[in-house]
Amino acid sequence: MFYNLTFRAKIFFSQVILFIVFFAVLTPFVENTAAEIVQRAFIDETKDVIAVLKPAVNEQEMIELINKEKTFLYMRLSLYNADGKEVAEGSDQEEGAVVTSSIENSVVNEALQKGYSYQEGFPRGYRGRFVFIAVAFVSHEKRYVICTSYPYWQIEKMLQNFEKSYLALGSIILLFFMFMTWLVFARLSQPIKQIIQTIIPYQEGKTDELPIITLSSKVEEGDEMQKLADTLNSLSGRVKAQVQRIREERNEKEAILESLGEGVMAVDATLCIQYVNFIAAKMLGLSRKQLIGTPLLSIEEKAKQILIERCCQLLVSCQQQKVVMTDSVSLGDARKLYLDLIAAPKADERGAIIVMQDNSNHYRILEMGKDFVANASHELRTPITIIRGFAETLQDLPEISAEMLHDITDKILRSCHRMDHLIKSLLVLADIENLPLANLQNYNLGQLIEECREHLLSVKPDARVEIIIHGEQPIMALVVADLFELALFNLLENAVKYSASPAYITIVLQKQEDTISISVTDRGMGIPEADLDQIFSRFYTVNKAHSRKLGGAGLGLSIVKTIIEKHDGSISAVSEIGKGSCFTILLPAQHL
Fold first, then answer.
1. The domain spanning residue 46 has which CATH number?
2. Burial of 553 by CB count in 10 Å (0-12 exposed, 13-18 middle, 19+ buried)?
3. Is residue 69 very low, low, confident or very high in pLDDT (cuts 50, 70, 90)?
């Protein structure tokens, strides 16, 4: 209980205990000391009588002086010679009989031997208890003893008065000392109280920073408490700097982890999630707020259950074996997600960290490469097969009619043109992807669109092309004119190919703040919604038979997208079956 008290309460109770101990020790000490002091006082008083008697020249003069000493406060005053015989006496007749007692004889004999004697007792002929004091002295070359006696009640009263005075004085001194001690401690503890009151809000979490400790003006500059406050403020400043540095390092690490393309998740030994970045949360299908502090095994997300189970297995294994472990997992059916998992135990053996790398693009590129080779081989094989077939026909039929020969050579020539167009498209794609845009120039997009329309009308004179330009003219952009014209022409050519004759095409050009948009809208057959995400892929065609009939290989829109992306732009498409399609190009409005 004592340890739970405040500092001031401890001081108060300590002083109370000290006061009690003081009285317990002082009382017997005062009693003994008072008795000695009273005894010494009576002996000294007896010696004063001796000083009066000593100058006497004979016993008669001494007797006369003793008779005069009756005015002193003695019960009995007697003079004895060296033989122990009483020479003279003086007494107070009202206090008791004048009788020489055995105690008085004993006191006189002891004084003759030792020089003085002090004894207490109940002598015969006396009423009550008495104190006898005898002191030996020499006068006119003779040895004498002066013996005085006092009623004990008189001494007892003196002792009581002395003890009371002594204890009262001691109590006053002790109380004064306690009071002064309390004041000193109160003054010394006031700065400590101020320090505590200043720090309490931080301790209770009401503020995030350690406050500056400011003591009252009563505390001098060089005072130890001021030095303590300055030291605490200095430590507080260092702690703030350290906390700020830790916070900055943490924010920097979090920023680095957030900027990674991989998902990062940290768990403790029980697989409870301690940290997860945005990518990892997205992979698990939940928000960071839902994941942090949640056991990984308790996450109930059916679509991600395989991933969660694999992560748990890998995290447990790497902690048990204390080595980095890897695994792979694929998710989804139509659009697969390929993840590589890397788990490593923490250095303090209190959890692990797992990194989830999304390699879907890598696998998709591999698949696209395989598809590209397959499609390119197929597209090249078709005209080659046609040419080979007709060549074998010519070889087997040397005498063929001129009409059939013309028909065969015409088909061979068309197949050659198709193969040439395919090869040129592939070369254009390769050139665009590796082409540095060193020859970017400011170009009037309205003029560029007009040139594309004239080019299209020279090939398809029945097409109807309307150009709409919104806002101030001219609208300038930083482009490679030849490449951008090729992209626009491919869009216009596709609009004509997949529209009933005559084709109706609308081109809208406008500038909005920092963006330039170009939309090409037709009224053709439209594109199924399921195919919109794939139409910009190489060799992808919505209607293969129709495309092959028109001589298309599925590379036109892929070329358009590559060119637009080379200009830091983007292209998108919306379409409705039977009503047509709209392709929109967005470019940054930048110019030299």
1. 3.30.450.20
2. buried
3. low
